[in-house]
From TrEMBL:
Residues 822-856 are annotated as: Disordered. This is Sucrose synthase. Belongs to the glycosyltransferase 1 family. Plant sucrose synthase subfamily. GO terms for molecular function: sucrose synthase activity. Sucrose-cleaving enzyme that provides UDP-glucose and fructose for various metabolic pathways. InterPro entries: Glyco_trans_1 (IPR001296), Sucrose_synth_GT-B1 (IPR000368), Sucrose_synthase_pln/cyn (IPR012820), SUS_EPBD (IPR056736), SUS_N (IPR056735). It comes from Brassica carinata (Ethiopian mustard). Residues 582-728 form the Glycosyl transferase family domain. It comes from the Eukaryota. The keyword Nucleotide-binding does not apply. It catalyses: an NDP-alpha-D-glucose + D-fructose = a ribonucleoside 5'-diphosphate + sucrose + H(+). GO terms for biological process: sucrose metabolic process. The keyword Calcium does not apply.
Length: 934
């Protein structure tokens, strides 16, 4: 746009590099002081809050500081996410809008400004960490240097690579230049709609442009049977002619299965004819929703204990289990509807593929196949982790799974093909490990793939990319970030629950956006990892179970059996472990429910309410953080039953609790400092309860402020509590206002946040991106070669550094197995006790002697049988794989003991060589730094 920009904002045509000199001229004296302060401490990495603190120290006069911060320089600072300080330069990574990044370098001496590339900025950032790396070599990681000379040499190489001008750079943007991109930040997350528009534009014009669609229709088959057209219709002209005849009479060229529902068949033929005549995105969307493209679906969720009972709360097992199970139920229901409407006799199949864990801790995670409750054709398929030593029995942390994933993919692929008897039509991954496995399998089979990250670890730990070496022994981020990059770039589409997951907000980058450009010094420099304007990004929010969370007005469905306990919980005048204080029944209730942690900000809400007299007079406050205390039980089985009952009651009673709050004309408040999605917000709105929710995160997208609910600022309690109070004041004067917000909230849910909508979107993506994959087949192959190199040359060597845990259960299981052996028979072993009995036994008469002989023969016979059983059991133990492994460990241990003297000598010379290398490094690099600083 050609319009002039205001002093405090930039237009799209403006560049921060162009505007920075003008910003620095506004108060050159103060700018010189500020930038001198920035570089004073030497090399460092600064965040926005650090910058603001320095500004406050350098500009002491509040009026001067306010004037600068309200000017152009203040605006640029608010856009700055990070600053790399390498004296005399200060490099700013600025983000004026979601997805848009600029890099500027300022000389603190003369305030000269240069625009730099992402590569230049990352190099400066890497240099901040070089010296700290060298210190680590001397202090924190001496034990590594003292292990082997080989490992010391590797660390020396790694340090040198951090300053290498030719370090490995990953630039996925360079091989994605032909892929169309969105232009506006507001368009991010609407990839399928954009692809549909782009495809319709490519199909328009001459008939030869329609050949990709013809080829796609020819490829649609199930178990080798064509579903739309057969090989006889091999040109666009033939297809058009056949469709003209088939509108009135079903063409013999069309698949006979479609004759079962002739009205819908005719509609589909008309849609296809219209697309061939004049393609547009609306017609194309309708057509793809009718095409029989997806029947068999594979969903990967590898880590943790994936099951339907007794798994929540176990390591690495949480909300993703519920998400995937609800996803499967909705997906199968939608597939059954579509297949029936298409007149086909096929049955869909959905497999959730996860890890089989032999040591299942009382769950069903050691069962290979398990039917999913509430479905007819969906199952959990479990595949074990297998190493050269056999099947891994115990649980493995999600941070340590990488060495097993390639073999897991191969084994899972074989089992899936065996069960489906054909290739799947769609593969969906979950989390880093599941997404990588899905990428490997989809690439091998040539199948459309989607990924769901749920949570990307890179954004959870500050500077986890630059500090990867420090965190790698525990978290293996080198593997994880590489796997994330591979999966992001291989997949055909990416599903997120919110916009903020992709591109964040005005103030902070999104989880995916943080992978745009980053560095892992000494490993690789990612100058273009993922582009949030890529049309592969799609927002498909999950819903709540509407059989449980339904409006308070649906009286026949209400769970009245919970009403007495809820009334007791809310209005009992006696304090106990479940509640404290009493409520006045004539007042509406402000309700909040979350676990008690800092981020959920429940204590903040209580403080707001306590300080505001007006709100206390108008409404009660109810906060729920839990119902049962399992620690009161000492019995393991009782605890399991209490937990099971707790889960059921929490699900059903919570939903009725929402509705009981709605009966009082109350509200639900979600005051979190940050909420990634906001499932409780959707649950409350499903029940017809007006909702106030944080403006930090996903709830800001769920609620249309002032229409279907209200946004509150968790960092401004006075403003938030005033807004809640204003709502109740208006409700007291307008009897219809509460109902209008309640109904608008329900309308918002039904339009955007149900599992049915989610399933429809997912199947639409599978169809459209399947076609897009075929159209861009050549480009995808070229990109895949690039990714294959990254996988084989970087990821696989990194996985070999992840320690494969020993099977800790081996000695215990061997001991328990040996306990099954019968004890040595007394009659054969000549034990001392038996000898004593024999010696003290009195002499008997002849009849007694005969009985003793028979008894002795019986004992001998039993002893022989027991001895035979004992020998068999010993043979089993001796030939078992675990016993052989144990013997090998004993032998290896003995060899190590015999070589003790040699090991000491090797260690001594390793120490000498390592210290010499450290001395050379110190002289070389510390000397260089001191000269530059002088």
């Amino acid at each position: 746009m050609a319009s002039s920009s205001s002093p405090t904002t930039l237009q799209r045509s403006d560049s921060i590099a162009d505007k920075m000199p003008d910003a620095l001229k506004q108060s050159r004296y103060h700018m010189k002081r500020c930038f001198a302060s920035f570089v004073k401490g030497g090399k460092k990495l600064m965040k926005r809050e650090n910058l603001m603190n320095e500004i406050e120290k350098c500009i002491e006069d509040s009026n001067d500081r306010k004037k600068i911060m309200e000017g152009l320089f203040g605006y640029i600072l608010t856009c700055t996410q990070e600053v790399a300080v390498v004296p005399p330069f200060v490099a700013l990574a600025a983000r004026p809008d979601p997805g848009f990044w600029e890099y500027v370098k300022v000389n603190a001496g003369d305030l000269s400004v240069d625009e730099i590339t992402a590569t230049d900025y990352l190099k400066l950032k890497e240099s901040v960490f070089d010296e700290s790396w060298l210190v680590k070599i001397f202090i924190q990681e001496q034990y590594v240097l003292l292990k082997k000379l080989k490992e010391s040499y590797l660390f020396f190489q790694m340090f040198c690579r951090a300053k290498d001008e030719h370090a490995l750079e990953l630039d996925f943007g360079a091989i994605d230049f032909t892929t169309p991109r969105l232009n506006l930040s507001s368009s991010i997350g609407n990839g399928a709609d954009y692809i549909s528009k782009f495809i319709s534009s490519k199909l328009g014009g001459k008939s030869d442009k329609l050949e990709p669609l013809l080829n796609y229709l020819l490829r649609l088959n199930h178990h080798g049977e064509n579903l739309m057209i057969n090989e006889g219709i091999n040109t666009v002209a033939k297809l058009k002619k056949s469709l003209m005849l088939a509108v009135n009479v079903v063409s013999t060229y069309l698949n006979t299965h479609l004759m079962k529902l002739s009205p819908r068949v005719k509609e589909t033929m008309v849609m296809l004819s219209e697309v061939l005549e004049a393609p547009d995105s609306v017609k194309l969307d309708l057509l793809f929703s009718r095409l029989p493209t997806v029947f068999n679906v594979v969903i990967f969720s590898v880590h943790g204990y994936f099951g339907q009972q007794d798994v929540l709360g176990l390591p690495d097992t949480g909300g993703q289990v519920v998400y995937i199970l609800d996803q499967v139920r909705a997906l199968e229901e939608e597939l059954l509807i579509r297949i029936n409407q298409q007149g086909l006799g096929f049955k869909p199949q959905i497999l959730v593929v996860t890890r089989l864990i032999p040591e299942a801790r009382g769950t069903k995670c050691d069962q290979e196949l398990e039917a999913i409750e509430g479905t007819k054709h969906s199952h959990i398929l479990r595949v074990p982790f297998v190493t050269d030593k056999g099947t891994l029995r115990q649980w493995v942390s999600r941070f340590d799974v990488y060495p097993y994933l390639e073999r897991f993919t191969q084994d899972a692929t074989s089992k899936i093909l065996q069960r489906f008897e054909c290739k799947p039509d769609l593969i969906v991954g979950n989390y880093t490990d599941g997404n990588l496995v899905a990428s490997l399998m989809a690439t091998k089979l040539g199948v459309t793939q989607g990924t769901i990250a749920h949570a990307l670890e890179k954004t959870k730990y500050e500077d986890s990319d630059a500090k990867w070496k420090e965190l790698d022994p525990k978290y293996h981020f080198s593997c994880q970030f590489t796997a994330d990059l591979i999966a992001m770039n291989v997949t055909d589409f990416i599903i997120t629950s919110t916009y903020q997951e992709i591109a964040g907000s005005k103030e902070r980058p999104g989880q995916y956006e943080s992978h745009t450009a980053f560095t892992m010094p000494g490993l690789c420099r990612v100058v273009s990892g993922i582009d949030v304007f890529d049309p592969k990004f799609n927002i498909a929010a999950p819903g709540a179970d509407q059989s449980v969370y339904f409006p308070y007005t649906e009286t026949p469905k209400r769970l009245t059996k919970f009403h007495p306990s809820i009334q007791e919980l809310l209005y009992n005048e006696k304090d106990n472990n479940e509640h404290m204080d009493t409520l006045r029944k004539e007042k509406p209730i402000i309700f909040s429910m979350a676990r008690l942690d800092t981020v959920k900000n429940i204590t903040g809400l209580v403080e707001w309410y306590g300080k505001d007299k007006r709100l206390r007079e108008m409404a009660n406050l109810v906060v729920v953080a839990g119902f049962f205390d399992m620690s009161k039980s000492n019995d393991r089985e009782e605890k399991a039953e209490i937990k099971k009952m707790h889960d059921l009651i929490e699900k059903y009673r919570n939903s009725e609790l929402y509705r009981c709050i709605a009966d009082t004309k109350g509200v639900f408040v979600q005051p979190a400092l940050y909420e990634a999605f906001g499932l409780t917000v959707i649950e409350a709105m499903n029940c017809g309860l007006p909702t106030f929710a944080t403006n930090q995160g996903g709830p800001a997208e769920i609620i249309v402020d002032g229409v279907s609910g209200f946004h509150i600022d968790p960092n401004n309690g006075d403003e938030s509590v005033a807004r809640i109070g204003d709502f109740f004041s208006k409700c007291s004067t307008d009897g219809l206002y509460w109902d209008s917000i309640s109904n608008a909230g329900l309308k918002r849910i039904y339009e955007c946040y149900t599992w049915k909508i989610y399933a429809e979107k997912l199947l639409k993506m599978g169809s459209i991106y399947g076609f897009w994959r075929q159209v861009n087949e050549d480009q995808k192959k070229a990109k895949q070669r690039y990714i294959d190199m990254l996988y084989n040359l970087q990821f696989k060597p990194l996985t070999k550094k992840v320690t494969i845990p020993e099977d800790k259960s081996l000695p215990m299981r061997l001991a328990s197995l040996r306990n099954l052996l019968p004890k040595k028979p007394a009659s054969l072993g000549g034990g001392s006790k038996q000898k004593e009995v024999t010696e003290t036994k009195p002499k008997s008469k002849d009849g007694q002697k005969r009985n003793d002989v028979k008894a002795g023969e019986g004992e001998v016979k039993e002893g022989l049988l027991a001895a035979e059983a004992s020998e068999r059991m010993k043979k089993v133990l001796e030939t078992s794989e675990e016993t052989q492994r144990l013997e090998k460990m004993k032998i290896a241990y003995g060899q190590q003991r015999n070589q003790g003297g040699s090991s000491v000598r090797n260690l001594f010379w390793s120490v000498v060589v390592c210290l010499y290398i450290c001395y050379i490094l110190k002289q070389r690099f510390f000397g260089t730094y001191s000269v530059q600083e002088d």
